[in-house]
Amino acid sequence: MFMEERRSNRKTRVGTVVSDRMNKTVVVSVERLVKHAKYGKYIRRRSKFKAHDAENQCRIGDRVLIQESRPLSKTKHWVVVKILVRAAV
């Protein structure tokens, strides 16, 4: 038998790091566009997620890819998968 590649059904988001003050945790702001039900105009909606950053590599302004995981604390259930773009220093 051959091995099948197992696909993850966990959610992923791309966002910007807005806080790195905590140890091994970053706050990631994810922006999305939502169409207004009545007027049809697109509105920016913003959500903040606490994500686990094991090596404390993320800095404020970095674009990161985060993935859903098991609960790591009361409010933290996302993990930083990859730093996509480093912030300009």
Q: What this model shows, in words?
A:
By secondary structure, the protein is an all-beta fold. It has one domain (12-85): OB fold (Dihydrolipoamide Acetyltransferase, E2P) (Beta Barrel), CATH 2.40.50.140. The chain contains no helices and five strands. It has a five-stranded mixed barrel with strand order 1-2-3-5-4. A hairpin with a 7-residue loop joins strand 4 (63-68) and strand 5 (76-85). The mean pLDDT is 94.
Helix amount:
under 10%
The whole-number mean of residue pLDDT values reads: 94
Distance between the termini: 51 Å
CATH class: Mainly Beta
Strand percentage lies at over 45%
Low-confidence stretches: none
List the secondary-structure elements in sequence, H or E: EEEEE
Task: Provide the CATH architecture.
Answer: Beta Barrel
Q: In order across it, which strands form the biggest sheet? A: 1-2-3-5-4
Function: One of the primary rRNA binding proteins, it binds specifically to the 5'-end of 16S ribosomal RNA.
Protein name: Small ribosomal subunit protein uS17
Organism: Desulfosoma caldarium
GO biological process, one term: translation
Key words describing this protein structure:
89 residues, OB fold (Dihydrolipoamide Acetyltransferase, E2P), 5 strands, globular
Outline:
The protein is an all-beta fold and 89 residues long. The chain has strands at 12-19, 25-35, 42-52, 63-68, 76-85.
Layout: helices, strands, pairs:
Blueprint: E1 12-19, E2 25-35, E3 42-52, E4 63-68, E5 76-85
